[in-house]
Amino acid sequence: MNPTLTALIVFGCVFGGTLLGMCLRAVTPVHHLSEDSKDVINLGIGLIATLTALVLGLVIATAKSSYDSQELSVKHIAAKFLLLDRELAQYGPETREARDLIRRSLAHKLNEIWPEESKPETDTAKTPPITEGIQERISQLAPRSETQRGLQSRALQVTSDILETRWFVLGALGRSVPLPFLVVVVFWLTIIFGSFGLLAPRNATVVVVLFVCALSVAGAICLILEMDQPFTGLMKISSAPLRYTLAHLGQ
User: Fold this and answer.
1) Which residues contact 36 (CB under 8 A, 6 or more apart)?
2) What angle do helix axes 204-227 and 179-199 make, rounded to 10 degrees?
3) Which end of the chain has the least Cβ crowding within 10 Å, N or C?
4) pTM of the prediction?
């Protein structure tokens, strides 16, 4: 779902509802727009506006929760990669191959997710390194002391945590904002703005104000959808934690 395209569709529906309401005002019998009728219309629109606010709040909370969860997962993976590198460094020089694979795996992911921030020399792997291969190499180590055995065990546990978090991130990709929610909210907003057009006087000031309001609503929907896609678009999660880890691997 393209946030910009969706926002344009939302704007078209909402402002289109305003223009439709203005057109209906011109053909609606005068007695249908009496003060009593307007009171009833305002009560109905007030109810819809309240429902819209509640659903919008729920949608925003869902998108923000998903964004925060993904951001926390990235920080968690960065910390675990750095911890894994330290554990292997303490084990001994025989872990050099596994540590190099960690660095190449992390560099590849950075280039894949944040290509606009990556340097050409960062991607040293001709083929994408497989994170599972790190665990396999650690399992193949032959510890010669209790200290090395403990380091191997902890390294395997950290690797399992990284894989678990990675699958959690992959499983959470996709829309956290249900499409039916969005459709219903846009429908309600169209009705609300249609009532504005029906009840408001037809002049340039009113049209401009409603235009700006419709644009603001579309912008809010766009931001919600951008937040629902944490690894693409304008509100992409920062790569700083992973870049910090990459800079300190092998030290």
Assistant:
1) none
2) 170
3) C
4) 0.76
Task: Tell me how far apart the terminal alpha carbons of the chain are, to the nearest angstrom.
Answer: 42
- Residues 48 and 188: beta-carbon distance below 8 Å: yes
Tokens of 209: 């104000």
Residue entry with tokens 């193949």: 140
Query: How many Cα atoms are found within 13 Å in the side-chain-facing hemisphere of 179?
Result: 4
Alpha-carbon distance 184 to 55, whole Å? 9
Amino acid residing at 98: A
Where along the chain do its domains lie? 3-248
Joined tokens for residue 248: 């300190």
Phi, psi of 146, deg, nearest 5? -65, -35
The per-residue pLDDT for range 88-135, each reduced to its tens digit, is 999 988 888 888 888 888 888 888 888 776 665 444 444 455 666 788
Residue 210 and residue 196 in contact, taking contact as beta carbons nearer than 8 Å = yes
10/14 Cα distance (integer angstroms): 6
- From the CB of residue 20, how many other CB atoms can be counted at a distance below 10 Å? 15
Asked if 98 contacts 134 with a C-beta cutoff of 8 angstroms, the reply is yes
| Tens digit of each residue's pLDDT (9 = 90 or more) over 179-194 | 888 889 999 999 999 9
